[in-house]
Amino acid sequence: MENTNPKVWLNGKMLDYADAKVPILTHSLQYGSGIFEGIRAYKTKKGRAIFRLKDHVKRFFETAKIYSMELGYRPEEIESAIIEVVKVNKLDSCYIRPFAFYGDDKIGMSTSNKKVSVFIAAVPFGAYFGSGLDKGIRCKISSWRRINSEILPIRAKASGNYINSIIAGNEAHAAGFDEAILLSCNGYVAEGPGENIFLVKNGRLLTPGEESDILFGITRYSLIEMAKNEGIEVREGSIHKEELYIADEAFFAGTAAEITPITNIDGISIGNGKVGPITARLANEYREIVSGNNTKYKNWLTEV
User: Fold this and answer.
1) Active-site residue identified among 46, 157, 274, 298
2) Residue 211 lies in domain
3) Between β-strands 196-201 and 268-269, what pairing exists: parallel, antiparallel or unpaired?
4) Above 70 in pLDDT, residue 2?
5) Which of 73, 79, 157, 213 is in Cβ range 3.0-4.6 Å of 184 for a Cys bridge?
6) What is the pTM (predicted TM-score) of this model?
7) 157 a catalytic residue
8) Do residues 258 and 269 touch, judged by C-beta distance below 8 A?
9) 106 confidence band (pLDDT: 50, 70, 90)
10) In a domain, 296, yes or no
């Protein structure tokens, strides 16, 4: 963490990061049984603001419900704690990580009667893909398939789900690509390791639907609403792999990735191999929204 003395919130108390300790045999470290959210705050003219805070906290509690985790707090208390962590660390632009985990240090997979701890941290954070945010990135369709609801709850943002993402990302990076694209078990385009994917074809915006085993990203929902308000037709549904190659434009959307153009997939240039006009238009509008410059979407921002 970059702050010289960062503060974090653990079980209702604000602590120095170095003092926020858990047993090395913590259940969620052993078995991947934690749940989390990824949230961003941005610098605006009025100060800092958190993007879609209530929506992220709502999903955090929905994930907890799916996994029968009793967090011990109300959503409003977690929202307040997140705001306080950003304030106390005096961060303008940052990534916020609420995380709930089983603090029990006994061997055994059962979660019955195990205490749930809740942790919130905020760290300085820039562009996830660096210059790719403006120039575009190269992706590889992974040989690994996206998990589905017959295996694990894909709507839940749970730690264990992301082992699937890590192995796909490792494969892509080892082959010299910036990121992976996973297909669903039925062979349709699903998403990136930590991002939803969009295509542009003949002026229409296409994105995988719920049948494609995707996480319902909050940035994804935001982009769909933005596009419709801009008069861009949006279709959610099944997308064949080859549709990626012949798309006019493609981009990732996510809290970390924001809107990141994809200019090459499996060595094939997407469109003319440059950032497309609709991608650039939506990316610019997104930046205006999170920076507080587009008041049409001011309800998406929580001032800190």
Assistant:
1) 157
2) 132-290
3) unpaired
4) no
5) 213
6) 0.95
7) yes
8) no
9) confident
10) no
